Amino acid sequence: MKIGVSLPVRELGxxxxxxxxxxxxxxxxxxxxLRVPEQVYRAGSGPLHEPMTMMTYIAAVTRKIELVPxxxxxxxxxxxxxxxxxxxxxxxxxxxxxxxxxVGKNPEEYAALGADFHTRGDRCEEQMELLKRLxxxxxxxxxxxxxxxxxxxxxxxxxxxxxxxxxGAAGLPIDRIRRRIGRQADGWFNLCSPEEFPGLRDDIxxxxxxxxxxxxxxxxxAGVAVVGPREAEWKSRxxxxxxxxxxHLCLRTLGGGLEKRQHVEKLREAVAELPSI
Length: 277
Prior knowledge:
By secondary structure, the protein is of the alpha/beta class.
């Protein structure tokens, strides 16, 4: 099981030096990936940097750690621009991008971005199809419901052909999102409980098989907070997810009321305890 960490961007705010220190500490400690959330427009949520831009900055000050925006609100963004941004980040980082995507749930955010909230699921599925082609083909002709063009390409193509796309959804995903994961995605970010997980996994695997895909090729990642109300049980939760068979796990230092500098310290403490789990 690969273990990474969520960058506590709200807590670190505009302290760019500390953001860099946290990212470099995660890499130095041997963690495999770094996740950054997205929130382009929402009042009163605290500071959140745009994740593709933030990851590009972090790519320049790290060498090995995988970079995981998780998740960008894909249907609110122009498909070709996402393809170009992601390919650029993948090239600049030496092939370290894993792109987390979702559809969001805030109509006001879609309105502010000039996108249609009500068609977001349908559009996302078309975008996923198109992104894979743009990342693997020099020239693309596409006639979809939302995107139409001919003779287009995003030279240079990314290092990874295609860039892996993982789907995120809150709680227990609805049937359509389960289908989307099984039929189109490379993995998913799991937010349900260990008790609910087997049923969800079985549904997604059935969708993958129906699409002629190998279910075992799909990755899945859960998060575990090492601070806050459940701090005392974080090690048992990591062990439980490992036993279930997750491919990835994300540690979180956010949400526990830590001071800025304590996030790096808490991360070091948690990683030191991982071998005992």
